[in-house]
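In this supplementary section we document a worked example of the pipeline. Step one takes a protein sequence of length 270 as its only input; no multiple sequence alignment statistics are reported here. Step two produces a three-dimensional model, which step three serialises into structure tokens for compact storage. The input and output of this example are shown verbatim.
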Amino acid sequence: MALKDVLKKYKPLDTGLSKERMDVFQQGLDAISVKHLTKAFGDMKALDDLSISFPKSLVTGLIGPSGAGKSTLINLITGALKPDDGLIALNGQAYSFIEPYRMREFKVARTFQNGRVIGRLSVEDNLLLAVAKNNVWQGLKEFETEPYKKKLEGILIKTGLKEYRRKKAAELSVELKKMLDIGRALMQDADIYIFDEPFTGISSKMLEDVLSAVDILRVEAKTVILIEHNMSLIEKLSDYLIVLDHGKVLADGAPKDVLKNKRVRDALKM
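The serialised model returned by step three reads:
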């Protein structure tokens, strides 16, 4: 099935803002905000005095041309990189830098463009490791897995990985590694989910599975940040849209309005 056919068939579970999500939206609460965030690599500024907020309980699309600063922003928020300047606020608490190991404390889960997994571990152990104490292998051996078994089974089915559960992650295809990375995020009881290009390089069937997962998070009023290059997907999935270009905000607002913006269309070569 082609992408356009999947999108034509796709109908979101929550086509508008549910009462719970509307209440949060009307309060103007932010799950994440950054103030004057700057990051340079040599002479190139990946982010240039960036200030932006991600509304709580909404699906926010984060788009922009290659090199716009999207992944750099996510890496700064999640502690994979240190900012040169500026502040990052999670649920109203501001920091100049937040260590990656504290993401679970802040109930933030993320994926990576290349499907980051631990190759020597089985698919099942990769998923369980996402909820193990301190997120380390020793923690996996020490913690009680029984409370997570039901969720584990559901994630294995949802990501199409059930038949590969005993297989080492290193032996999976690129597509299945990406689904495993998504599954690791979904295993966590997070409030904020960040998906970095989750639809790139996966089949139509897997795409449907990811769409369904995002739908469920939407209904549960979770905060979702979605980096994606396919504008049809972004328009279908997002409640709110932010466009970056050269490390600055080019536009933000309702997806349909933003995608009509001439400057946005020019930057994205639409």
